[in-house]
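Design a sequence for this backbone.
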């Protein structure tokens, strides 16, 4: 049994807390939002983020970071990526001993294009980080909290550490964990797929059908692969759980906030109205901005990402943007 501290008691943090508690670990769930923590401790529910779920009573909520981190072995970060740097700074300040960092958030930093592993190595003192693992793959919190069958991957530059975390998170009944030694591919796959999920929602909101969705997923994967490989990912990673697998689940399921946000934008709502109507984080919007500038800087062609950027940030009409996509020069697949 390990002591595991989860930073971020939102949907996915709560889903992982249930899983780790089922695996008989001591689980501490930390959040800056005191009302969420009080509800977890008093009622073992988290209605704002997981209306359907119930947490085991042994999962304890914490609002004090030092208490949450004392003698813990593993720190799992599950906060929106826009706060991840600050959250890691706070963890570094409160932490008194070395731990394994596992990140379950998905995204890259817009101005720096840094992945969460890079941010962690910048923000955590060397003597407090044993190593870094990313846990990612097709995994909606809403299904994990119902203990529905799920597969994910633990990726790390240190394969022994990935294997160690694989055993911590794996559950023979409902949560199967693979390992991977391609951190770049796993982190970028998880970030870029949210942009394609927005596009999938937009297409559906506009009334396009399954042919368009299949085209989007396939061509979306092609541009995920182009960007990731350009910066050192292994091509095959993009065809695995952390790439194609995550892309399928997020671009086809109503559980995906990115897909839902796209649906609303495609049906004519503006970005502000859309984001205000979804209480949880919609990572695809920020990832879209990051991927747009990253691809421009690296001279990588990402027509779908550029189209989503045009709709969201340049307020272009989705139908005009799709027309432009369809009228590009013909080419070999
Ligand atoms: N929801 C899912 O099914 C799912 C699955 C896999 C990965 N993810 C990824 O996990 C990340 C979190 O997503 P979510 O769905 O749980 O988000 P969410 O919006 O449901 O919850 C985020 C939580 O983080 C808390 N928080 C904000 N700032 C904090 C800080 N500085 N310190 C501690 N807590 C803080 C918020 O109070 C909130 O409780 C995202 O990057 C998302 O892409 C989500």
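Sequence:
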């Amino acid at each position: 049994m390990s002591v595991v501290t989860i930073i971020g008691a939102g949907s996915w943090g709560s889903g992982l807390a249930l899983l780790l508690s089922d695996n008989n670990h001591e689980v501490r769930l930390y959040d800056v939002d005191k009302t969420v923590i009080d509800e977890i401790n008093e009622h073992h529910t988290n209605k704002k983020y997981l209306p359907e779920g119930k947490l085991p009573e042994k999962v304890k909520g914490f609002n004090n970071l030092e208490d949450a981190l004392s003698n813990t072995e593993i720190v799992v970060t599950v906060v929106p990526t826009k706060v991840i740097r600050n959250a890691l700074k706070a963890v570094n300040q409160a932490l008194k001993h070395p731990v394994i960092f596992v990140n379950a958030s998905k995204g890259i930093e817009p101005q720096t294009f840094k992945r969460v592993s890079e941010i962690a190595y910048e923000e955590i003192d060397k003597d407090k980080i044993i190593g870094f693992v990313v846990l990612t793959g097709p995994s909606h919190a809403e299904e994990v909290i119902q203990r529905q069958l799920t597969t994910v991957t633990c990726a790390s530059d240190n394969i022994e550490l990935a294997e160690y975390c694989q055993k911590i998170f794996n559950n023979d009944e409902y949560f199967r964990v693979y390992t991977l030694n391609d951190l770049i591919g796993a982190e970028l796959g998880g970030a870029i797929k949210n942009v394609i999920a927005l596009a999938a929602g937009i297409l559906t909101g506009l009334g396009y059908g399954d042919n368009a969705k299949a085209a989007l997923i396939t061509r979306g994967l092609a541009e995920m692969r182009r960007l990731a490989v350009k910066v050192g990912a292994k091509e095959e990673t993009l065809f695995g759980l952390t790439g194609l697998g995550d892309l399928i689940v997020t671009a086809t399921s109503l559980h995906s906030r990115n897909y839902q946000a796209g649906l609303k934008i495609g049906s004519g709502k503006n970005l502000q109205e859309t984001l205000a109507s979804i209480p949880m984080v919609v990572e695809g919007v920020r990832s879209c901005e990051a991927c747009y500038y990253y691809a421009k800087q690296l001279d990588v062609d990402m027509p779908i990402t550029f189209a989503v950027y045009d709709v969201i940030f340049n307020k272009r009409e989705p139908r005009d943007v799709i027309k432009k996509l369809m009228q590009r020069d013909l080419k070999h697949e």
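The two ends are 50 Å apart (CA to CA).
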